[in-house]
Amino acid sequence: MDDLLDGMKIIQSKDVFSFSTDAVLVASFTRLDASAKKVIDLGTGTGIIPLLLSKRYPRLQMIGLEIQERLADMSRRSVEFNNLSDRIDIQLGDLKQAPATFGYGVFDAVVSNPPYMEAGIGEQNPNPHKAIARHEIHCNLADICATASKLVKSGGKFFIVYRSLRLAELMTELRRNSLEPKRMRLVAPRIDKEPNIVLLEAVKDRQPGLRIEPTLAVYNDNGTFTDELLSMNPTGQKARGESHGICSEQL
């Protein structure tokens, strides 16, 4: 049981999975309209994204969908511990079946921190829980974008954190599924280094027009976290999470 923020706590396990910087970044990057009422997090893991969003959007109803039974159980217990069961519903299931389960075009927004590595590319973690989080074992980018498009309303938003190396592929899949990229921010280990992560907001059934925000640097020159990065950190200290590639160290 780890501290999160404002008295909130989250259940994690080094042997299974712990949240990492990329989840914190996409939660911070998520901007919802005042009218937004219903959001789903695809691949919720420990439930970190719904927990963080619950503080910023107190009227929001959220579903956290997770395919791994042990992670879903951990997430559900974290939600219950924080007395958020009336606002966050953790569901066990395959995201590819989500539209049939929850309905088509019923969500104001979809959020996802998906696996970044293609199956068969790079060394796969022997821990199956961590392998599923990093590699496209149960779903791939095409599945994520297609599912998000089916779940979100016309005019609704999709927020995703991904590897900048696969940005062209991400843009292609978004547009293939009528999700128009509207806001983007690159993330780099330091301001003088090449970005390795992209945060992207797409909107369903909208015209082209992409706004690119200034690059976010994770570290200062002396190796400390930048002030902006620290402002996103819910605990004020480094987390023990598994990184998808955001930087060499986690919050």
Automatic annotation (TrEMBL):
Organism of derivation: Desulfuribacillus stibiiarsenatis
SUPFAM superfamilies xref list: S-adenosyl-L-methionine-dependent methyltransferases
InterPro entries: DNA_methylase_N6_adenine_CS (IPR002052), SAM-dependent_MTases_sf (IPR029063), Small_mtfrase_dom (IPR007848), tRNA_Adenine-N(6)_MTase (IPR050210)
UniProt-listed PANTHER family: TRNA1(VAL) (ADENINE(37)-N6)-METHYLTRANSFERASE
PROSITE patterns attached to this UniProt entry: N6_MTASE (PS00092)
Domain of life: Bacteria
Protein name (database record): Methyltransferase small domain-containing protein
GO MF terms held by the record: N-methyltransferase activity; nucleic acid binding; S-adenosylmethionine-dependent methyltransferase activity
Pfam families per the UniProt record, alphabetical: MTS
Domain Methyltransferase small: 23-171
One GO term (biological process): methylation
